[in-house]
Write a structure and sequence with these properties.
This protein is α/β, with parallel strands linked by helices and 179 residues long. The protein is 52% helix and 13% strand. It has helices spanning 2-14, 31-44, 62-73, 78-87, 90-98, 118-139, 154-166; strands at residues 20-24, 48-53, 142-147, 172-178. A four-stranded parallel beta sheet has the order 1-4-3-2, sandwiched between helices. Strand 3 (142-147), helix 7 and strand 4 (172-178) form a beta-alpha-beta unit. The longest helix is centred in the C-terminal third of the chain and has 22 residues, at 118-139. The chain is globular, with a radius of gyration of 16 Å.
Length: 179
């Protein structure tokens, strides 16, 4: 019965229903196996499910860097790739996720906030991630999955929560596994 409920959640993602699916359980209870099966199932439903294990991400925001790279490597129609290029400076977004400082001229229209302004940085980072995920999800339902969510650093967990709340009315779903 639990598996039916989990797969029902996956089917809801295919119908562009945004939601959060949290799977809790002891180590070895099959959470990671469900994610693997969900990936296979999502292809049949035209849903892009990108996943990562928090234990395998590097540094703060490594999870988001991985998700972005996986999305960029997916089979994007030219129109979606063009829209992403026009509205999201992905290189800058990845730089911001890496914590690199601003190297753009003062008059540039797209600037990273200075490292001294933590709130501004968080707000801009959240807005750029939301824009990136929304643009892609207009083309195809998107599910962002992370195994071992409890293993993420505090900053990344907080960013996942901010992005999820900002995407509440978008066809972007989240699957989170935790112990």
């Amino acid at each position: 019965r639990e598996k039916q409920a989990l797969y029902g959640g996956l089917d809801a993602f295919a119908h562009r229903s945004s939601q959060l699916l949290i799977i809790e359980g002891d180590a070895g209870s099959g959470k990671s196996q469900f994610i693997k099966k969900a990936c296979r199932r999502s292809h049949n439903r035209n849903v892009l499910l990108v996943t990562n294990d928090a234990r395998k991400t590097s540094g703060p925001f490594g999870l988001f860097r991985s998700w972005i790279e996986d999305i960029r490597q997916s089979d994007l129609p030219a129109s979606v790739a063009q829209e992403l290029s026009a509205f999201v400076n992905t290189r800058r977004l990845l730089s911001l996720l890496c914590g690199q400082t601003n190297d753009l001229p003062t008059q540039a229209s797209w600037r990273l906030p200075s490292a001294m302004r933590g709130t501004e940085r968080k707000d801009q980072l959240t807005a750029e991630l939301v824009r990136f995920f929304r643009i892609f999800s207009r083309h195809r339902p998107l599910v962002l999955a992370v195994s071992n969510f409890d293993r993420l650093d505090d900053e990344t967990r907080a960013l996942v929560k901010r992005v999820f709340c900002s995407l509440a009315n978008s066809p972007v779903g989240f699957i989170i596994t935790t112990n």
